[in-house]
From TrEMBL:
Binds 2 zinc ions per subunit. Component of the replication restart primosome. Keywords: ATP-binding, DNA replication, DNA-binding, Helicase, Hydrolase, Isomerase, Metal-binding, Nucleotide-binding, Primosome, Zinc. Residues 254-420 form the Helicase ATP-binding domain. Its EC number is 5.6.2.4. Zn(2+) 1 binds at residues 487, 490, 533, 536. Initiates the restart of stalled replication forks, which reloads the replicative helicase on sites other than the origin of replication. Recognizes and binds to abandoned replication forks and remodels them to uncover a helicase loading site. Promotes assembly of the primosome at these replication forks. Zn(2+) 2 binds at residues 496, 499, 514, 517. CDD domains: DEXHc_priA. Its cofactor is Zn(2+). The keyword Isomerase applies. This is Replication restart protein PriA. One of its GO terms (biological process) is DNA replication, synthesis of primer.
């Protein structure tokens, strides 16, 4: 926060040329809405939407961003009527625009849609690295300091025209190597030194003779060496399948219509969706526009990024959570400077400053990671649809297991004024066929006396893989499931005494840990018991559930020594590049088993994988969430899709205690409708999305009574409001919004705060956010009580 106060202007205030709405860069909710300032004539040309400005607020100096400009005070968006005489003037312009006027409008739309403050929505569009610092230089001039990294340069070596004809002497081996390496195009000195163990002397020698030249160009952190190299060769596009052609034609139609229409590419795993994206992007780039591709964090692997970089080369910027601060800034600069015209990234990449977006793609559209868990609690799909509408460009959604929301909108044909079209790609290109799926009924295995974690079919499958020297993928899904301790005598499961959630058992450190608040306790469970059941005092406090480690141990015992067993879970992928290295080991092995949590289910494309096993599918099915089925179906379908991607057919074996579950049957019979029909009926009966929009209002406080009282007042106001407006809703042919609760949350206490929530079910197409915002303003704030609103809530 700025400490100094600039001296009061000594001269009479300058005449004002126009007015600006300025959002202050101060993280206080009370100051998060824009304030009006005058734009003095002297800086009127520089003042633009997106500019960082220095203003006075109260008696201090602060940085802010212009979000709107208008000739008259009354025309400013989102500012209440003010007296022009009391308006202060902007002191100085501190930076050129950091975001566009369109970005400011999208931020305003988000703030309304998600009941979030404008400043937190705006922050998404700002360069990474946090708030700027406003400082006064020795010369008395104010300036803004943003985190920045020093640009780095790459030295590119290339052949001169004469160089192409130069034949080095027979004995000059190094020179021959260098000239051969440069035949396809420029290569950096770093790559050359890496590949050939120091080429510096040779480069110098040939530079003297005019055979090569060395040129410096800005390099961007976050673009790794190998990918720059492979871009030099560039892979030629393949001939497209009929399904791919159809999908492309539909995207092309949407592009030419320029209404912001949506195309859902509903293609089984391995059907070539990524290839469709690549071709669509090619056309957009040819038209002089840019493209943004969102990929779930979990599938943002080197493999995925490599495919984009090998097609589009140096014009691809990448955003994911493993980037260092410097890499993130450099990738951002790369986009802002126009050097990158394709962005591949997780959710937040949607907000980077692409110039003239002509296509937005969301791969694995159904993924829950597209929903942001903190304010603004946006869903990337919905924000992208709004952006597509404003930029008049297509939004392409891809999935093998589309969300109920996307399917429903395609069934209706339109949503929010845009056309939604579904294109199916039910087949894989070439010889690759869908794998056969077998169900191993664990109940039967158990009743036949088997106590092994591997059923007979799975064991036979693994033996076959070893015999034929192929590869297998084993999924040990632990989403929503972690090892815990349970008393075998009374059934008690130890819980956190701050949070009332079940504690997770960590075998390596002999601790019980709370994953809500981070508390931990040391334990010595059965069979080396010094810890006793907190309820009955029994010594039989034992571990439940299998860890990935245990399965790995069992595999080592079962399989011959020359089979590589590679475990991928949160523990084994902690280090930088650990993920990539494990996959490289799997790729290089002659015969191997890749065992992992859900992180291995997606995006991997290894043609030698012929067997996929699911150790226990039931953990995914039994979560207390109306989307549990959708998630489980997605997971199983995705992991099954890892098998048989090459010429050899694949087999999938799913172990379960619940073979009749519609999810399991749909996967086994390759018929999605078995699951989706059932799921849709359930949602219709219980009134869940896509039939309603869900809003979760959460209130928390260290004082339970305060929180309960507060949420009670919100509930009452909302109920009263909608009760009164009921005739209007009915007249408009709409259902009346419903209020469920208030109730205490599933996690009643977290970090010693008591949590209550209420659920709103709103008719689709109604702006329920406005009503909620109005009620929250009416209730006002109460000391020590926090509230959050989650529109289109996921985790209830
Ligand atoms: P998806 O994204 O739907 O899982 P991919 O685009 O990754 O599918 O394609 C799966 C595999 O098929 C990849 O190895 C890809 O190179 C290959 N492939 C895609 N389209 C074609 C095509 N038209 N002809 C031949 N092979 C293709
Ligand atoms: Zn007990
Ligand atoms: Zn806790």
């Amino acid at each position: 926060e700025p400490e100094e106060t600039p001296a009061k202007p000594e001269f009479a205030p300058e005449p004002v040329a126009a007015y600006a709405s300025v959002v202050l860069d101060i993280p206080t909710r009370a100051l998060s809405e824009p304030f009006a300032y005058g734009i003095p004539r002297s800086i009127a040309n520089e003042a633009q939407i997106g500019s960082t400005v220095l203003v006075h607020f109260g008696n201090r100096a602060a940085a802010g961003y212009i979000v709107d400009i208008a000739p008259e005070l009354g025309d400013l968006q989102g500012i209440n009527a003010l007296d022009p005489a009391r308006i202060k003037a902007i002191e100085a312009i501190l930076s050129k625009p950091l975001f566009t006027a369109e970005a400011a409008r999208i931020a305003r739309w988000m703030s309304r849609e998600y009941v979030a403050t404008l400043s937190e929505c705006l922050r998404l569009f700002l360069p990474p690295g946090g708030s700027p610092r406003v400082v006064k230089g020795d010369d008395g001039v104010w300036a803004v300091e943003r985190p920045a990294v020093k640009p780095i340069q790459n030295r590119w070596v290339m052949l001169t025209p004469e160089g192409f004809d130069y034949t080095p002497p027979k004995t000059a081996v190094r020179q021959r190597q260098l000239i051969e390496a440069l035949q396809c195009g420029p290569v950096t000195t770093r790559d050359l030194n890496l590949l050939y163990n120091s080429m510096s002397a040779t480069i110098k020698a040939l530079e003297k003779r005019g055979v090569v030249v060395v040129e410096e160009r800005r390099a961007w952190r976050g673009c790794s060496e190998q990918t720059t190299l492979s871009s030099a060769t560039g892979k030629a596009p393949v001939a497209l399948t009929n399904g791919q052609k159809q999908a492309l034609a539909q995207i092309e139609r949407a592009r030419l219509d320029a209404h912001g229409d949506v195309v859902l590419v509903d293609g089984v795993t391995g059907s070539g969706k990524t290839e469709v994206y690549l071709s669509a992007i090619e056309r957009v780039l040819a038209a002089g526009r840019s493209a943004c591709v969102l990929v779930p964090e979990i599938s943002l692997t080197a493999q995925t990024v490599g495919r984009f970089r090998s097609r589009f080369g140096e014009t691809v910027a990448v955003f994911h959570s493993r980037l260092s601060a410097g890499e993130r800034l450099d990738q951002w600069d790369m986009v802002a400077s126009g050097a990158a015209r394709v962005v591949v990234g997780a959710r937040s990449a949607l907000f980077c400053p692409l110039d003239d977006p002509g296509l937005i793609i969301i791969d694995e559209e159904h993924e829950t990671s597209y929903k942001q868990g903190s304010s603004p609690r946006y869903h990337a799909r919905e924000v992208a649809a709004e952006m597509a509408r404003r930029y008049r460009c297509p939004l392409v959604l891809g999935s093998a297991t589309p969300s109920a929301e996307a399917l429903d909108r395609c069934r209706r044909g339109t949503y929010n004024g845009a056309t939604w079209t579904r294109v199916e790609m039910p087949e894989r290109p070439g010889h690759a066929v869908l794998p056969t799926v077998r169900i191993a009924d664990l109940r039967r295995e158990f009743s036949h006396g088997s106590r092994s974690m591997f059923s007979k079919p799975l064991m036979e499958g693994l033996e076959r893989v070893v015999e034929r020297r192929e590869k297998a993928v084993l999924l040990h899904n632990r989403r929503g499931f972690a090892p815990f301790l349970m008393c075998r005598e009374c059934g008690c499961v130890p819980t956190c005494n701050h949070c009332s959630t079940a504690l997770t058992y960590h075998e390596r450190t002999h601790t019980l840990q709370c994953h809500t608040c981070g508390s931990s306790w040391r334990v010595q469970p059965y069979p080396a018991p010094t810890s006793r059941c907190p309820k009955c005092g029994s010594r039989y406090l034992a571990k439940m559930g299998l860890g990935t480690q245990q399965i790995e141990d069992a595999l080592h015992q079962m399989l011959p020594e020359d089979v590589a067993i590679i475990r991928m879970d949160a523990d084994s992928t902690r280090g930088k590049d650990a993920h990539k290295k494990l996959l490289e080991r799997f790729d290089a092995a002659d015969c191997a088993v890749l065992l992992g949590t859900q992180m291995i289910a997606k995006g991997l494309d290894f043609p030698e994988v012929t067997l996929v096993g699911v150790v226990n599918a039931d953990f995914a099915l039994k979560l207390p969430d109306f989307r549990a089925g959708e998630r489980a179906y997605d997971l199983l379908e995705q992991v099954a899709g890892r098998a048989g991607r090459g010429d050899r057919p694949g087999e999938v074996i799913i172990q379960t205690y619940l073979p009749e579950d519609p999810v399991i049957r749909a996967v086994a019979e390759h018929d999605r409708s078995i699951f989706t029909d059932y799921d849709l009926d359930q949602r219709r009966d219980a009134l869940y999305p896509p039939f309603v929009r869900l809003v979760n209002i959460l209130v928390w406080s260290t004082k339970a009574d305060d929180a309960q009282d507060y949420i009670g007042r919100i509930a009452k106001l909302l109920k009263r409001r909608w009760h009164a407006a009921a005739p209007d809703f009915l007249r408009a042919g709409r259902a009346v919004p419903q209020v469920l609760g208030p109730a205490s949350c599933v996690i009643e206490r977290a970090k010693d705060r008591y949590r209550f929530h209420l659920l709103v079910k709103s008719p689709v197409g109604y702006h329920v956010s406005d009503d909620i915002d109005a009620c929250l303003k009416e209730v006002g704030s109460v000391r020590g009580v926090s509230v959050s609103v989650d529109v289109d809530a996921y985790d209830l």
